[in-house]
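input
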Amino acid sequence: DLRGEVDTEGRQMHVTVIAVADELACAADLVCGKTRRVPAALIRGYRGTAKPGTGRDMIRPEKEDLFR
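output
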């Protein structure tokens, strides 16, 4: 969670929360590729710092959801 931190332009960030699952999926996509016919990537060694949760925990309240 980077809320409250300052970005490279000196502005305070208000809604920046890193979606680790998205970042790991992007890394896996680099390994699998779009046309290489590699069906999956195994990610080893990742040690999360967040508390365990479910997919439901990632759903933001409607007033905070920037994509609705």
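quick obs: The chain has a mean pLDDT of 85.
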